[in-house]
Every structure is written in C-alpha cells, then in structure tokens.
Design goal:
The protein is α/β, with parallel strands linked by helices. Helix 8 crosses helix 9. Bound molecules: zinc ion (ZN).
C-alpha cells in the first residue's frame, strides 16, 4: 500500500472532481495522501481538504511565491501548525530555473521556513531546481528534518543531503524515458526513501501528458522497484514506514506509527 507523500489536491485542476480522484486513489490502495501547499491561502485550503477527506497536509510558501513572504504570512503559516493534520512545513526551497521570485528573497523565505521546522518539530518539504550550490550550503546550516521532494538534482546535492540524513522522494519523473539518473535512485538508503506523485504535475508513464493524480503513485513504486532490483510491494511497505517515521503519523491501517 504506497502512500503519496506529495500531491497538490488543492490545485485548480482538481476542483471539479476532487472527491472522485481521492476515492480512485483509495480503491487503488493508496490510503494516505499528503496535500502539499505552496502559499498561505493554499495552506489553509490544504488543511480544509485534509479535514474533509481524512488526509494530511502541509503549510508553507513555495519559492515561486517567496515574494509574498512577510511576518504576517509567516504568522498565518504558523497558525496552520496547530492543526494535527498538518505534518510538515512546505513546500519551500529554491528555484533558480524559473526565478519567479528574486533569489535573495527565495533564500530568506526558505531560511525562515527551515527555522519554523526546527521550532515546531516538523519536517520541511523542499523543492530545489537549478540551485544545487546554494541548497547544499543551506542544508549544511540547518538542523531541520529535510525532504528533498521530486528529486532530480545533481550528485553533489544528493551526497550532501544523504550526508545529513535527509529523506529523498522520487516522483513520476523516474518513469520518463529521459530519466538517466538510475544511480540516484539506487544510492538512497532504504530508510530514507519516499515516493510521491507531485500531482497534478509530472504524470508518470503511461499517463504522461495527462493530469497526474495520487493513484498513479503505484507507477512510481513500480519503476523505483525495477531500478533498485526489488518488488513494488517492498518499495510500498518501505516508503510507507519511512513516511510514518518522517511525518510522525500513522500512514496505513496495517503499518503502525513509529
Ligand atoms: Zn509540489
């Protein structure tokens, strides 16, 4: 029973059929999903969706939205942590590919959210794109429990992340023909491996180009298993245990909380 540790169920593409998408995931055996936020309004919405559908949520501001970061937004995000369904800070991080917010602003918002993770004993969901050097430096500088989500960065960042015991989450990107980094998928130790969809984005093969949804995390488990030379069931069990440990919540009726 795999769990989807990263899906944007609050995103507009799910507005018309959110309940059906979640029901389809559960029928496929994906019992738990973590609804990831990318802004203050999305954080409140993620909490509402988690409540309505018995899921978990995160609260935080994406690097694309880093320009919105200010004390009032930080306070709003912090308020969300009072909800026991909110299990992580994020997603936050650095994106120097799109540069939707100035890099200095991205670093400041990210540093503040790493500090919130430490203060509130919550793991931090991290997006990193084309920012490996700064990410390595900032990871070295925090005591937060870090999750590098939809990992697709270079070997130096992977080594630095593993060195400080971060969790590494792979998405449907590992099913793409263009995915050449088999070594990264093999290098993550069993106890640090997570899987996700990042839906509605990055639909795995054979759904590429369509809207992604949490049920498709099974394709991610299958491909990760193939690359690591194990079974999809083993990957599902392992990553569900890891999610329970990482997020500190029960993730599956037959996998007890740590
Ligand atoms: Zn995301």
């Amino acid at each position: 029973m795999p769990i989807d540790t990263h899906c944007h169920l609050g995103a507009e593409p799910f507005d018309a059929d959110r309940a059906a998408v979640i029901a389809r995931a559960r029928r496929a055996g994906v019992t738990r999903m973590i609804v990831v936020a990318d802004s203050a309004p999305a954080s409140r919405q993620a909490g509402t969706i988690a409540e309505e559908f018995d899921l978990y949520a995160t609260a935080g501001v994406h690097p694309h939205e880093a320009s919105s970061w200010c004390p009032a937004v930080a306070a709003e995000i912090t308020e969300c942590f009072a909800d026991p369904r909110v299990v992580a800070v994020g997603e936050t991080g650095l994106d120097y590919h799109y540069d939707h917010s100035p890099r200095e602003t991205q670093r400041a918002a990210f540093a503040d959210q790493l500090a919130l993770g430490v203060e509130h004993h919550l793991p931090v969901v991290i997006h990193s794109r084309s920012a490996d050097r700064d990410m390595v430096a900032m990871l070295a500088d925090t005591d937060a429990t870090c999750i590098l989500h939809s990992f697709s960065s270079g070997p130096d960042l992977l080594a630095a992340a593993l060195d400080r015991d971060a969790y590494i989450s792979f998405s449907g990107m590992v099913t793409f023909k263009s995915w050449k980094d088999l070594d990264a998928v093999r290098a993550v130790p069993d106890h640090r491996l997570l899987i996700e969809t990042d839906s509605p984005y990055l639909a795995p093969v054979p759904h590429r180009g369509q809207r992604n949804e949490p049920a498709f995390v099974i394709r991610v488990a299958e491909r990760v298993a193939e690359i690591r030379g194990t079974t999809p069931e083993a990957v599902a069990t392992l990553t569900t245990h890891n999610a329970a440990r990482c997020f500190g919540r029960p993730m599956n009726p037959d996998v007890p909380a740590p």
